[in-house]
Amino acid sequence: MKHQLTALFALADPTRRQVLERLKSEPGLSVSELAQPLPIKMPGLMKHLAVLSDTGLISRTKAGRVVTVSLAANPPSEAAD
């Protein structure tokens, strides 16, 4: 139940939904690329990405100084529903 509420909380925010929609159409974006069209500052985006990562909806990989964000291969079933 707690995991379901966490996933619902993550999807309740319009900015997080916008991030997920963008990653669906443009997989593997860097954090900088992901931030460009959003009306929020980088620290705010990083907080949203942390929530999405903690719920298992996205994955982040780091190569040098570049962090790439992708949709998770196996998101929680509650979020998929």
Automatic annotation (TrEMBL):
Record-annotated membrane-spanning stretches: none
Record Gene3D superfamilies: Winged helix-like DNA-binding domain superfamily/Winged helix DNA-binding domain
Domain HTH arsR-type: 1-81
Pfam families in the record: HTH_20 (PF12840)
Taxonomy, superkingdom: Bacteria
SMART domains: HTH_ARSR (SM00418)
NCBIfam families from the UniProt entry: HTH_metalloreg
Protein name according to UniProt: HTH-type transcriptional regulator
